[in-house]
Each structure stands twice: as structure tokens, then as C-alpha cells.
Amino acid sequence: MKNPFASKNILLITGDLLISVASVYAGAYLRLFYVSQFELDKYFPLYPKAIIFSFFIVIIYFFMDLYDVEKNDGNKEILAKIISANVLAVFATGAFYYFVPYTYIGRGILFFSFCFAVLLTSLWHIGYLLFMRLPGIAERVLILGTGPIAHTMGNLLLANNSGLALAGYVNCAGEAVHVPRDYIIGGGEELLEVATKEKVQKIVVSLTERRGTFPVREVLNCKMQGIDIVDGLSFYEQITGKLLIENMNPSHLIFSDGFRVTVIQRYLKRMFDLVFALMVIVLAIPFLIIIPLLIKLDSKGPVLFKQKRVGEGEKGFTLYKFRTMIDRAEKNTGPVWSHTGDSRITRLGRFMRKTRLDELPQLFNVVFGEMSFIGPRPERPFFVESLKKQIPYYSERHCIKPGVTGWAQVRYEYGDSIEDAIEKLRYDLYYIKYQSLSLDLLIVLDTIKVIIFGKGGR
């Protein structure tokens, strides 16, 4: 993925460092305002401790992708990342204080420092993005190509608000035109001249067919002049958080970055699954007792709903959920997707689906090793066989364990069509490609938001 410490982000990082240091000083003076000079001397000099705090802030912001401004995160997502990053920074700083007592500044100061850092860095990051979107400041992007892929990239840029501006399209000989002709500002043989004239910082290669049309020498000349060259599919992933599977060929999966999971990563993920699932089960004990009683009062039928699903390696397993539909709901219809206003869903079931409480029993699937806490949604064998025939790369989503929650589940509402399945697959493959601790952490935070606000269920 793109280096978040690119030169254009140095200002953003510098601001975070200064704000973090200032937050520690502000926290200390607020906490120790009425403290005697003798007590003050225990905490000062403060600058080494402030530098340590700011160091952890910046490192964790890096892992949370807060310096990848082209990801087009919304203000709420930025705020969620900053809060979670500062919580981790407080724990990391506290652990460091334990091993290096000289750097200790006290829980009160650390708490106020956290509050100041969250508030000020949130304002700083949101303000920085607003500044980057101003005309003349936004990074100008030139699209190489005029076909269907180039059209998709152009629409993406026009709808984008993360500091990127469409400079225009460059047509290569022999490629059909699917973009507005008014935006075509040159040909492939004059690429460097056009890029220089338009003050372009990035060229997105979006040719539908590169064989015989790709201007190798001209693109290389642009590269040597310091212009960033990026493949269209990678650019799409970076901006949207999903894969453009319609125009993707096997070589993209084979040779691109990502899709690499080491044995250590698998082991750590399994440990995370066990610890997190057991912890949530303990916290959810009241729900595990109350919900079965409410289900019995609401409608006839069993409390638990058991169904065959497809897991890792396309192996079947039995998934457990709290029943949300009337008993034997598919007796007359056979396997069908749920849809908006589905009459088969009970009154309690509708609430549980909105809050995802019906999925609590899946935590036991996680403990049994059949599922992960985070991964693609486990689908039914009937639909899997159907979707494999209609959607390219659908089987690739089964290379990891399915999850109770996942990137697709929090990014896209419940689907009931082929189009929805394709859209969710884009997110699933993105997660499989870029799975990491920071991405898992973001999914957990988004899942909490879904549970609280009831978004995405059906």
C-alpha cells in the first residue's frame, strides 16, 4: 500500500507531534494547577515524557492509516480512528512508564493529555483534509486511458473529497472513448508534455488493453520526472477500500502486494479470536439468558437456528444463531434471500437483526474453530454454488475462515441480489488482501457502531 509518510504528509505528521507534546503540557498544568512546588518538581522536566507520548501517538496513527489521506475517510471514521489510536497510545505509554519509571507522569495527567490529544488532533486532521481539497492545493491526477476503466476512475475522482482533483484523460491510439471528450487533453505520445503543462502529481494507468497501446517510454519519462505512477486497480482499492473485480485478472491477485498470511499471523489471529470471543461471551451472559426467553414468548419454534454454511476451504459447518424468523420459514419456498419487509421475520427478530444480537451464538462457532471473529460472511451452500457460476473469484473468499463480523458487513448493508453479492465480494477480497491488526481494530469499532445504531441489518 502507499507510503503514508510521503512528503505531502510531513506537515500532518509534524502537526500531530506538536499537538501531542502540547497536550501533555496542557494536561499537566490542568492536573497540577493547585499542587505545591514540591509536588510539581516530581513531574518536571516534562519534555522527555511528552516526546515519548507523542512518539507512540504518531506510530499508532501510522498503523491506523491516519496518514493515508487518499483513503477518503469520512469525519466520523477519522474520529473513530483517532480515539482508538489514542486509547492504544495511553496503554503503550503506561507500559513504557512501568519499565522506565523516570518517565512516569501520573494517571491524571495522562487522562487529560488523552482528552486534549483526541480533541486537537481530530480538529487538525479534519481541517487538514479541508485545506487539501481547496482549488490549487488538491493533488492533480491525470488518467491514462479513455475506456471503461478510465471512466470508472474519472467518476471516482469527481466524487472524491480527499484532496484529489481530476486533471483530465489521455487517449492512447486504438482505445475506444467512454469518457467525456471535453476532458481528453492529449495523447499517449505527448504524455510528459501534458503532465507538465497541467502540473500533474499522479498518473493513474487505466488502459482497458495495454498490449500495443501502453506508451512505455512516455510513462517512464514521467516517472523519472518525479510523477507518481499508479495502476488503476490499485488506485481504486486505495480510495474505496474494495477491489474492482470486473476488470481484475488472475495476475493482479498473484503479483500484487497483499494476499500473504504467515503462520505467525494465523496463530496470532486464532489467539485474538479465542480471547475476544470468550470475553464477549462472558459480557453477553445476560443477553444469552434473556433472549431465549423473549424468543419463546414472541413466537413458536426453537430458540436456536441451525444452518449449514460454507467455511474455510469450502468445507461445510453448522452455524448457530438465535431464531429471527417464523419456524420452518422456507418450507414452501426453499432457500431464498431475506429482503426488506420480509414477512417471515418475527417482531423480536427484526430488532435482533438490526442490532446483530441474533449472531451472538456464532461466538461458539469461533471458539470451536469453525469461524473467525472477523472475516467474510459465511454463506449457504446453495447460494455459494450459484454465485460461483456467476461471479468471478467468488471462491477466493473461502481461503480464510468466515467471520461473525467483517469488512463487507460493516461497509455494506445486507444484500439480497447478485449485484449485492458482487459488491460485498469486493470488500471481502480487499480484507483478505490487506488484513492486519489495524484493519481488524477498525472493523471491531465499526461493528460496535452498527450494534448501537442498528445499521445494516435486515
Q: Please state roughly what percent of the residues sit in beta strands, choosing from under 5%, 5-15%, 15-25%, 25-35%, 35-45% or over 45%.
A: 5-15%
N-to-C SSE string, H for helix and E for strand: HHHHHEHEEHEHEHHHHEEHHEHEHHH
Mean pLDDT: 84
Largest sheet: 5 strands, parallel
Structural domain tally: 3
Low-confidence stretches: 1-7
Strand order of the largest sheet: 3-2-1-4-5
Which structural class fits the helix and strand makeup?
Answer: alpha/beta
* Gross geometry: flat
Report how far apart the termini are. Answer: 34 Å
Helix content: 40-55%
Which radius of gyration do the C-alpha atoms yield?
26 Å
Number of strands: 9
Q: Counting H and I runs of at least 4 residues, what is the number of helices?
A: 18
Describe the structure.
This protein is an alpha/beta fold and 458 residues long. The chain has three domains: 7-132, no CATH class; 139-240, Rossmann fold, CATH 3.40.50; 263-453, no CATH class. Residues 1-7 have low confidence and may be disordered. The longest helix is centred in the N-terminal third of the chain and has 26 residues, at 107-132. 52% of the residues lie in helices and 10% in strands.
